[in-house]
Amino acid sequence: MNTKSTIFSIVCMSTLALFIYHPSTAAAESIPFPLNKDNSYKLDGDHFLPSSLDTITWGHLPNRNSEPVMEITSGETLTVDTVSHEGILDDQGRNPIEYFGEHGVSEDEILEEAKTIADSDIDHDFDNHGPHVVTGPVAIEGAEPGDVLKVEILSLTPRVPYGVISNRHYKGALPEEFPENDGPEEGASADNPELYNNVSLFTPIEYIDGQWFGQILGEDVQFPIDPFMGMMGVATDTEDDVHSVPPTHTGGNIDINDLTEGSTLYLPIEVAGGLFYTGDPHFAQGDGEVALTALEASLRTTFRLTVLKNGDESIPGNASEFTHPFGETDDFWIPIGLDEDLNEAMKDATRRSINFLEDELGMDRAKAYAYLSAATDYEVSQVVDQTKGIHGMIRKADFENKLASLDSSQSEDSEGGALPDTATNTTIWLLFGSGLLLVGIAFYYFTIRRKASMK
Q1: CA–centroid distance for 299 within its chain
Q2: Average of per-residue pLDDT across 33-54
Q3: Which domains does the chain have, with CATH numbers?
């Protein structure tokens, strides 16, 4: 085989190898379910936080009087084993062994924390408390009121291969219509869960062609999962009990399905240490979350928690007056609107979008409003958590030129003026380099031909 043929073969084989080993054609992902605390799979953080009786609350969120269960340094990573509330609530018998067992799940496939929490004497009022198992809070060293907590979601891994989708009476987008039965009966309790007449749909997941899918049993329907944490927040500066259901200005149950692996959430810090918490893990959720719940299921999640001091330039929008959650992905900025009235939540999200474009990019407010109308989608985060959510998806790619211009201006300011024009020098160097390349190619072929003639 001659030299040119060898080079061509190497290029072809390399390209083929890249195709063969592309993740989309990789062998089925092997997760050693269930991911209990003694299972080190995806246990990647600098710190590990299980959902034990010492590290959780059930149905309410931290406030300024809450004691942290752990303290970490800003910038460190934290792996949290979160627990879904579905399968342990009163209308499911508050007994995950029996509930999941009825759906063919063996006891050793059920999370130990779920069993422990359900069997505990934690005071949880099914009718009046929130349903969520809330893990934390975690103090971050140096966090002070007025700072911002940057929460980077590094990984999200299913802890079990199943979840639950629930619809309960007087809740959801159609509270007077579903479930389609006569409603709760007298005597409904954890001992008589069937009398609630609520609907909970056991939903296993299956790995098919490189992707996990949720399975609607008995209907031959499946949908891809895209895990995210429904609840991420910091403590609110109050002494009152904070219900876990409605999202607030410090985060909480925001249920934004775009905050998946690789995304970032910014939260305004109101108390010393920040007191970060998380919960309400989801395998998948449609915009609106109309039935009441998403595909609720436990996740092992790794975060990086970083304190941004008041005024830090990396804080989105007005860095000195950051008072509301804000999301970000590689491709989008995500301003968040919240209100009990969905129309007001839409207005809130729109105002926050305009303010962000003005503060972050120096955009004229009227032009920002026009741009948002033409190019930005506003999605219904959820309509089922008392306080409703709308979030905008501002596409970063639309601002590439503006960002480059801003970077150039900042560079000129920091360097004391415009950079010298080096276009002529660049052209000369390109021509010089091209000449050297041609000389090298000619020398190579001269050497090959000389060797051939000597044989």
Answers
A1: 11
A2: 97
A3: 47-322 (2.60.120.580), 331-401 (3.10.28.20)
